[in-house]
Amino acid sequence: MDALLANLPTLLVLARTHSLTAAAAELGVPRSTVSRRLARLEQELGVVLAERNTRSFTLTEAARRLSAEAGGLLARLQTVSETVRAEAGQIRGHLRFATPPGLAGSFIGRLLARFQGQHPAVEIEIVVTERRPHLLEERFDALVTSEAPPELPWTRRKLGHLWFVAVASPAYLALHPAPTRPQDLAEHVVLSGPRSPEGLMTWPRLRGASLPVRPWLVTNDLPTLRITALEGLGIALLPIHLVCEDLAANKLVQVLPEHIGATVDIVALFVPERGKSPVLRAFFDNLAKYTAELREVV
Which residues does the UniProt record annotate as the domain HTH lysR-type (predicted)? Predict the structure, then answer.
């Protein structure tokens, strides 16, 4: 049984990559180690899990069936072990979650500083990715995102909002009188995020239809937008967590606060087997509180 539990995670990676070499690269171990772990699983179970030769590697039906069930089993076992520790008085375990680039950086950094102070026995692994990971197969506890289509099969919890605000530097506004109406942006240098799928460039209004804009700079990199705004190049639309310190230090000033802005939901997606995890719950509670505090900056 020890060999089964120890080597099932390797089988999950093999089932997803279909390659000893790719699995070894992902796990950060030699190819021979992956092969040895697979052999130990076969010995423990008494069945063949892979058909190997010099040219190909194919998992058997038994291996595919085992891997299909293993992710859920390992997730449930992890949750039970964390619950037992929590009942003994300590939130302890390993938290692995994925998030898109827009939620990485300062947003996650400040959150983790608070979380680590409260729960120092929790080890954290963050994977920043634009793709949508498979939670069970890749052994993610959660996906924290602002884009969660309703058709996704996982359990979801709304954790709060991201607030987007228009900002500019005092130096820029000293040379260009601050706009008082949304349509005044046509006379300003606009720094914007990417175009919509339809190729349109618009900024959200707090009330009414979106406002068409003609930006001087278009980029999907939020830190670049922040730096260009700090350098006095124009007016940018940015999430509050990225500019809250700049606003507090008067390095940036909010523009058209009564007209321009938007809120975006932050959602955590996770498999039901991890829903009762005290580690996950503690992290979600911290994130929800943090986003609520950011709202006070706007």
Answer: 1-60
The CATH number, out of the four listed (3.40.190.290, 3.40.50.920, 3.30.70.790, 3.40.50.300), of the domain defined by the range 162-263: 3.40.190.290
Tens-digit pLDDT profile for residues 7-46? 888 888 888 888 888 888 888 888 889 888 888 888 888 8
Closest CA to 182 of 146, 206, 215, 198: 206
Distance CA 256, CA 298 (A): 12
**What are the DSSP calls for 153-168, one per residue?**
-SEEEEEEEEEEEEEE
Residue 196 and residue 261: Cα distance in Å, rounded?
Answer: 16
For 2-59, give the CATH class. mainly alpha
pLDDT in tens, 263-298: 888 899 999 889 899 999 999 999 888 888 777 655
DSSP 189-213: -EEE-PPPTTS--EE-BSSSSPEE-
Q: In terms of pTM, does the model score above 0.90?
A: no
Q: Tens digit of pLDDT for each residue in 55-86?
A: 778 888 888 888 878 888 888 888 999 999 88
Q: Which residue has the tokens 């506890």?
A: 141
DSSP 207-264: SSSPEE---SEE-S-HHHHHHHHHTTS-EEEEEHHHHHHHHHTTSSEEESTTTB-EEE
Q: And the tokens for 249?
A: 């230090």
User: What are the pLDDT digits (tens) for 128-182?
Assistant: 888 888 888 788 999 998 877 777 788 999 988 888 999 999 999 999 999 999 9
Instruction: Say which residue the tokens 């179970």 belong to.
Output: 45
Please state whether beta strands 155-168 and 235-239 pair in parallel, antiparallel, or not at all (unpaired): antiparallel
Q: What angle do CA 108, 109, 113 make, to 5 degrees?
A: 115
State whether residue 127 is helix, strand or coil.
strand
